[in-house]
Amino acid sequence: MAGEPQADCLFCKIVSGEVPATVVRETDTTVAFRDINPQAPTHILVIPKVHYPDAASLAMAEPQITADILREAGVVAAEEKIDGTGFRVVFNTGSGAGQTVFHAHAHVLGGRGLNWPPG
Ligand code: AMP
Ligand code: ZN
C-alpha cells in the first residue's frame, strides 16, 4: 500500500529504529537526524515517517505531511541557529540530481556560505 514501510529502505529502518541515527527532532509524521556525511557545518535530513520515493510523489499523496517537512526544516534551522545566517532546503529528485536514498527527504544545510547556483 502507498506509504507503507519498505523492507529494503534505509530511511524506513531509521524511522523504525532498526538503524540508529542521531535524531534531533521527531513529530507524529516526521523524523529529523544528522546526515552521516555532512556537506556543511549543519546538515540535517528531515524525512516523513511514511515511505514515498521522492518529495514530488509525497506531495501528490500527502500534502499535509509535505508541509510538515518544510515546517520542521525551519524549526530545526532555528534550533541549530542557522536561520539568522541563512540555510538551504534541498530535495534531490532522481539519480541524475544526486538522489541516492529513495525515501523522500529534505536536506537542511547551513553554517557556511552557500553558493548559488548549486553544483
Ligand atoms: P540523497 O543523496 O539526496 O538521496 O541524500 C541521502 C543522504 O543520506 C546523503 O546525504 C547521505 O550522506 C545520507 N545518509 C546515508 N546513510 C545515512 C545514515 N545511515 N544516517 C544518516 N544519513 C545517511
Ligand atoms: Zn522508506
Task: Walk me through what this model shows.
The chain is built from 3 helices and 5 strands, in the order H-E-E-E-H-H-E-E. The chain has a 5-stranded antiparallel beta sheet, covered by helices on one side. The model has no long low-confidence stretch (mean pLDDT 97). Strand 2 and strand 3 form a beta hairpin. It has a single domain, classed as HIT-like (HIT family, subunit A, 2-Layer Sandwich). It is α+β, with helices and mostly antiparallel strands and 119 residues long. The longest helix has 17 residues, at 63-79. It has helices at residues 10-16, 55-61, 63-79, and strands spanning 23-26, 30-34, 42-48, 87-90, 106-110. It starts with 9 loop residues before the first helix and ends in a 9-residue tail after the last strand. Helix 2 crosses helix 3. Bound molecules: adenosine monophosphate (AMP) and zinc ion (ZN). Residues 6, 9, 11-12, 51, 103 line the site of zinc ion. InterPro entries: Histidine_triad_HIT, HIT-like, HIT-like_sf. Residues 10-119 form the HIT domain. This is Histidine triad nucleotide-binding protein. Pfam families: HIT. A motif (Histidine triad motif) lies at residues 103-107.
Briefly characterize the structure.
This protein is α+β, with helices and mostly antiparallel strands and 119 residues long. The chain is built from three helices and five strands; from the N terminus they run H-E-E-E-H-H-E-E.
